[in-house]
Amino acid sequence: MSPRFVQLTPPGRGAVATVLVEGPGASRVVEAYFRTKSGCPLSDYAADRIVLGRFGPTPGEQVVVHRRSDESVELHCHGGRAAIAMIENSLAKEGCRPTAWRNWVDSRHDDPITAAAHAALTEARTERTAAILLNQYHGALRRAMDEIERSIRNAKPQEAEKQIRELLGRVNVGLHLTRPWQVVLCGRPNVGKSSLINALAGYQRAIVHPTPGTTRDVVLVHTAVDGWPVELSDTAGLHAGSDTFHRASIELTERKLAKADLIVLVFDRSTLWSKDDYALLQSWPGAVVVHNKSDLPGASGAPKPGIATSALLGHGIEELTAAIADGLVPDPPPPGTAVPFTEEQVEWLHRVL
Question: Do 249 and 286 lie in a common domain?
Answer without folding.
Answer: yes
